[in-house]
Write a structure and sequence with these properties.
The complex is a heterodimer. Chain A is of the alpha+beta class. Helix content of chain A is 43%, strand content 20%. In chain B, 10% of the residues lie in helices and 44% in strands. In chain B, the strands form six sheets. Chain B has a four-stranded antiparallel sheet with strand order 1-25-24-23. The chains are: A alpha+beta, B mainly beta.
Chain lengths: 711, 364
């Protein structure tokens, strides 16, 4: 039985090591997942048609489809533009018919040259669009009803005119070669019409992605009121979308007229349903504000291939309309449900825990023989800045004994020597300043969560050192941007070694990373000489404190949720290797700093509890908890109680400082020794503590320890 | 089929709902601002007998005088429940699995009965004692184990002192923890693990025929415990621990729950407790992270102080709270006394080991 249980645990461990659950959430975060459904549909349609109809994709057929795509594509683009602005244009088919008639009348009956005929055709479309746009944009009529009415009106006009001129159009054959060439000619096998449509599509794409009018249309569709408040002329923008729609429809009609010269009243019949189906299938939202040219073209391809396929399969007109209706219904359903639930799904699947088994925690009981045994040494520390400072995650002192700390407001504040009673804002960086170090020139280098690594000169001038590193190959999302730079230290050669605690959570949710306990963090090095930033070690479990060893050959780093301290060699024979120093701590380690007697101080920001340690071995438990329990009720690492310990190069614990049951410093994230005192910071404290270290070297400072001289 | 769908998606019956404290249960800090009479470890079981206030602390039975608990008798194990008859005999439940009848004047044990897990006692009349037993498997001090193993083995027994016979009236209860006879002579009991109050709907109270239970107050936001009848006909209900969404979730996670019960020390379980948050090894929830040194009063915690006054129809009409940051957690016993038209409410918080006192009449 025991053996079976061990095996189950092993299976579980492997399952979570092999299947990266977090990738699902990261993929869902991508905007392009919107296009995933239409692309899969298109691939499915192509595969089905290829397999079921022989010669469906012959070269002749492809040329024919591309001509159809050129025309339908423009109409779908017209529909898309209107839909992105939050409207709908049901009159695209009738406008198309008007354009078709205008083109044929000009060329066949009036005998005009195709170029002025093209101009007049476009004008007819602009007029039709302006009619819709005026009523919908300026008079604020409902788009659906207005375009339904104009659908009927335009169609009736065409029918009336055709009764009079159809025979005339059919009877004449204009002697313009250009006229036939437009519809049937090609350049190196590519029909002219598809080239023209391609150019228009590229222009519309640039319009939407890079130009002001396109952004205005997006803004109006996204939120009319916000767009209005932001100064967008909403009425004109809506008006112009209908004008553009009319124009594009008649351009398509001109191509159609030149290709078929059909004076039938069928031209453009039912086009609005096809265009709407294509737009929605492509992923353009009916609600407005979401859509693109690529989506429109994808939808067009699906609809055209389907309709041709249905014809080739010999399905009757009525039945194929029925099929299109059903497809439209499905597409709308998916559109609505996807839009509504995507955020919800993302929310639910984002936290994706993995397996972790920690060794049994060392004892910490008061009065025990454990080196961690609780005491009240920090009970009577001197308090600095009580109520003035909020969240000094790290503290540091310069050679003039001024005390610096980052705050949750994005400031670096300074308490002036000698008594540290007066506080001033030394520099404002923004973000959340965390770990700090002094470089050889006396600049204060600090990790700023959600911004990167910054340097503050002694005069208070802020300079960005780095905010990105090399992108890792295995990551779905671009992880080059630094998300939560946490602590840093500077090597003897001036290189900045810093930890990024987690790539997946931010300043407010960092502790949720514990529920995942995956290697979401990394150690990164910034070299000021070359201004280059490289990742040194990745897949670390919340790497936190960093400290250059006394001999300058290695850096010590803490992994909070893994409860361990490791050493990374930066020079010497084992350079680049990682080796364990303290494999198993009773709490979650935070910052590490040098002590005057050649050892190291380590802050434990919280203590382990057996309930959470057990939950770490059952990832499914934590996953379901993240989905079903409200987040404020999640089981969490206990970060209300912590302590400071001292350890030596071998990782032996030499001392522990506690404030048990106290109000001053039960919670700690950092400590810094300076001239016989230990200064204590806490990420959610409203004070800094000053503890007199018995038997400490009274003149030792961090700066001289690092740089060997006074600045 | 439906329940499986619910379980996979965590919807419907499988959703983790905890009723909110609203209406008459709206949180306040009245327990915390009340007068602290005395501090006695594990203070519990307040009864009034011969004009004196009796209480228990662990194995000791005592009388409160001059705001101190003076020991009258020490028993062989923790006293779990206490009842007093009209002739001032005391019925005492002991954690080891016995109920004894005790004469306080002679300090003699008059009679005794084996009961697996005595949690509440009630003298119906001089010769009839109702005994609630929380569980077959767990003693009252192991109540968390009974909850986390989804115990449904509680029972209600009628012990006739005249002929010594004992009838089990009801069994399969989810930890009955309070018994009271209301103004209209109905027997009311609290069923803690189902978060409800029930009336024993058997007019003859002899268990013959088809005894049934009728829930009269359900969906409580905590685990109801001791009940006591007040002079005006209202009822005080002690809610000894709060419901917590995480605990409800752990109850559905049987693998985690059984491993936790096997491997983790009971005081460190994810389970309701009479007093939590004192040991940093205990489980903690996100909302309980201190900000700038402050624990928010709304923080999700495993212990709470709550007393609810119910009207004659068993509907809540007022409540006394000690919230997450309070210091009167784990209220297990309440008593209202009336002297010279002045009503005083005593609340014993076993979790924090404190007795508080307040004027009650003015609130009604």
């Amino acid at each position: 039985m025991l053996g079976l249980r061990m095996n189950l645990e092993l299976v579980r461990k492997w399952r979570y090591q092999l299947i990266p659950d977090h990738v699902v959430g990261e993929i869902l975060e991508k905007r392009w997942t919107d296009n995933a459904i239409p692309i899969v549909t298109l691939a499915g349609v192509i595969a089905a048609l290829y397999l079921s109809i022989p010669d469906f994709f012959s070269s002749y057929a492809i040329t024919d489809y591309s001509r159809q795509i050129a025309e339908l594509g423009l109409v779908v683009l017209a529909m898309t533009i209107v839909m992105i602005a939050g409207g709908i244009d049901l009159s695209v088919g009738s406008t198309f018919a008007i354009g078709n008639f205008t083109a044929l009348y000009c060329v066949h009956i009036l005998g005009m040259h195709p170029l002025p005929a093209f101009g007049l055709t476009c004008l007819s479309g602009i007029l039709c669009g302006a009619f819709n746009g005026y009523f919908i944009g300026y008079l604020r009529l409902r788009a659906f009803l207005t375009t339904l009415v104009s659908l009927i009106i335009f169609r009736s006009i065409v029918d009336l005119l055709l009764q009079k001129h159809a025979v005339g159009i059919m009877a004449t054959f204009p002697d313009s070669d250009l006229w036939y060439e437009i519809g049937e000619g090609d350049l190196w096998g590519l029909p002219y019409t598809i080239i023209a449509t391609g150019m228009i599509a590229i222009f519309v794409h640039i319009l939407f992605s890079r130009m002001r009018p396109g952004w205005h249309i997006m803004a109006v569709g996204g939120s009319r009121r916000s767009a209005h408040n932001a100064g967008v002329n909403v009425k004109r923008t809506v008006f112009l979308t209908y004008v553009a729609s009319g124009l594009l429809c008649t351009i398509a009609a001109f191509m159609f007229a030149s290709r078929l010269s059909s004076a039938s009243s069928d031209a453009g019949n039912g086009l609005e349903i096809m265009a709407l189906t294509a737009a929605v299938l492509g992923g353009t939202s009916l609600g407005g504000g979401r859509g693109s040219v690529a989506k429109a073209l994808l939808g067009t391809a699906i609809v055209l291939l389907l309709s041709n396929g249905l014809i080739r399969l010999g399905i009757q007109g009525g039945a194929s309309s029925l099929i299109f209706g059903i497809i439209l219904m499905l597409a709308v359903l998916i559109d609505v449900r996807w839009l509504k639930n995507r955020g919800k799904i993302l929310n639910k699947v984002y936290v994706s825990p993995t397996y972790m088994r920690l060794p049994p925690a060392p004892e910490t009981g008061a009065g025990g023989s454990s080196p961690y045994a609780q005491n009240d040494k920090l009970h009577h520390v001197e308090i600095i800045g009580l109520g003035e400072i909020e969240g000094p995650e790290d503290v540091i002192l310069d050679e003039n004994d001024h005390l610096y700390a980052g705050t949750r407001h994005g400031d670096v504040v300074r308490f002036l020597a000698p008594d540290h009673k007066k506080m001033e804002i030394f520099a404002h960086i923004g973000g959340r300043p965390l770990g700090m170090a002094l470089d050889a020139d006396g600049n204060l280098v600090t990790c700023v969560a959600s911004m990167g690594v910054y340097s503050v000169s002694p005069q208070g001038k802020v300079t960005k050192l780095t905010d990105q590193t090399n992108r890792s190959w295995s990551s779905v999302v671009d992880d080059s941007r630094l998300n939560l730079a946490d602590d840093l230290d500077i090597g003897p050669d001036g290189k900045v070694y810093f930890s990024e605690a987690t790539k997946r959570f931010d300043t407010h949710t960092w502790a949720v990373d514990c529920l995942e306990s995956r290697g979401n963090g990394r150690i990164v090095c910034y070299d000021p000489a070359t201004d280059r930033t490289r990742t040194l070690v990745s897949d670390l479990i919340f790497p936190n404190g960093i400290c250059t060893s006394h001999d300058g050959q290695s850096i010590l780093f803490a992994e909070s949720w893994a409860c361990r301290i490791s050493r990374y060699w930066i020079s010497g024979p084992s350079a680049g290797k990682v080796e364990p120093v303290i494999p198993n701590l009773p709490g979650y380690p935070d910052n590490i700093n040098r002590s005057s007697d050649g050892h190291y101080w380590l802050a434990l920001l919280g203590m382990r509890g057996p309930a959470l340690d057990l939950a770490q071995t059952i990832p499914g438990f934590r996953k379901r908890m993240a989905r079903r329990v409200a987040d404020d009720s999640w089981l969490f690492p206990n970060i209300n109680t912590g302590c400071v310990v001292k350890f030596n190069e071998q990782g032996e614990i030499l001392d522990a400082l506690w404030d048990l049951g106290g109000v001053n410093h039960p919670m700690l994230s950092s400590m810094r020794e300076h001239k016989g005192h230990l200064y204590l910071g806490g990420v959610s404290n409203n004070r800094i503590g000053k503890y007199k270290i018995p038997d400490a070297e009274p003149n030792w400072t961090g700066f001289t320890s690092y740089w060997g001289r006074a600045s | 089929m439906k329940s499986m769908y619910y379980r996979i998606l965590g919807r419907g019956d499988a959703a983790m709902h905890v009723p909110v404290m609203d209406g008459p249960l709206k949180p306040n800090n009245r327990l915390d601002v009340a007068e602290r009479v005395t501090e006695v470890p594990e203070l519990d079981n307040l009864v009034s007998c011969e004009g004196k206030l009796w209480a228990t602390s662990e194995t000791q039975l005592g009388v409160l005088s001059n705001d101190r608990l003076e020991t009258v008798h020490t028993f062989s194990s923790t006293i779990t429940c206490l009842a007093v008859s009209e002739t001032s005999r005391l019925a005492i439940g002991l954690d080891e699995g016995r109920v004894v009848i005790f004469d306080p004047s002679s300090k003699e044990v008059l009679d005794e009965q084996v009961v697996a897990s005595p949690t509440a006692l009630l003298f119906w009349d001089e010769d009839d004692l109702f005994i609630a037993s929380g569980s077959k498997e767990h003693s009252p001090s192991e109540w968390q184990a009974d909850l986390m193993s989804e115990g449904r083995s509680g029972s209600l027994t009628r012990w006739s002192l005249k002929d010594g016979s004992a009838h089990t009236l009801l069994s399969g209860l989810a930890y009955p923890t309070g018994l009271v006879r209301d103004k209209t002579d109905r027997l009311v009991f609290s069923e803690a693990w189902k978060h409800r109050l029930c009336v024993f709907a058997d007019p003859t109270l002899d268990g013959i025929g088809r005894p049934g239970i009728e829930p009269v107050l359900t969906r409580l936001p905590g685990y109801p415990g001791a009940l006591s009848l007040n002079p005006d006909g209202s009822i005080w209900m002690a809610v000894f621990a709060p419901r917590n969404q995480l605990v409800e979730f752990v109850l559905t996670e049987r693998e985690y729950c059984t491993k936790m019960m096997r491997q983790v020390d009971r005081s460190l379980w994810i389970a309701p407790t009479l007093r939590g948050g004192r040991n940093y090894h205990e489980p903690m929830q996100w909302g309980a992270v201190k900000q700038l040194g402050v624990l928010k009063p709304w923080a999700p915690v495993l212990s709470y102080g709550l007393a609810v006054r119910l009207n004659a129809e068993f509907q809540p009409i007022e409540s006394l709270h000690s919230r997450a940051d309070g210091s009167v957690h784990g209220v297990t016993s309440l008593l209202e006394t009336r002297e010279n038209d002045r009503a005083t409410t005593y609340a014993a918080a076993k979790g924090d080991g404190v007795l508080v006192r307040m004027d009650a009449g003015s609130q009604l």
